[in-house]
Amino acid sequence: MDKVKSGNLDLEFLNNTQLILENVRLLGLNTVNVPFQVDVPNTTSNTMTLNEERYLLSKGIVETLQQNRIKVILEPFPYIRGGAVGETAWNPQDKFEWFRNWTAICERLINEIQFLIMFGVLM
């Protein structure tokens, strides 16, 4: 089994597929951590939503990476108050409710991307 040589993508640069591929090749990566923006209203919120516009960008990056035989790690990335607050400041009031919501986001990502890969949409 090959060793994982991974890099992370920044949410702000998901629209530059060519630059991403150039950097993957330059660094010799075989795996890329692809963020999926999760919008969070404030630091104590138990709720979150997957940002649909950014979802499409991230999904497109996954497709491009798969076509180039690069493995991907799906990362739901919290974007609190439009990115004004760092994710480490997030301290939900109800941890049980937060975890239930977070799990739903993760399951959606896994199920949808896995479905696309299984049925040849992402290769």
The tally of helices reads 3
Counting helices, strands and paired strands, the structural category is: alpha/beta
> Approximately how much beta-strand content do the residues carry?
15-25%
Order of helices and strands: EHEEHEH
Structural commentary:
It is built from three helices and four strands, in the order βαββαβα. It is α/β, with parallel strands linked by helices. Strands 1, 2, 3 and 4 form a four-stranded mixed sheet that branches. Strand 1, helix 1 and strand 2 (31-40) form a beta-alpha-beta unit.
Task: Give the SSE layout.
Blueprint: E1 6-8, H1 17-27, E2 31-40, E3 49-50, H2 52-67, E4 71-80, H3 95-118
Parallel strand pairs: 1-2, 2-4
Antiparallel strand pairs: 2-3
Summarize the structure in short.
With 123 residues, this protein is an alpha/beta fold.
Characteristics:
elongated, 41% helix, 123 residues, alpha/beta, 3 helices, four-stranded mixed β-sheet
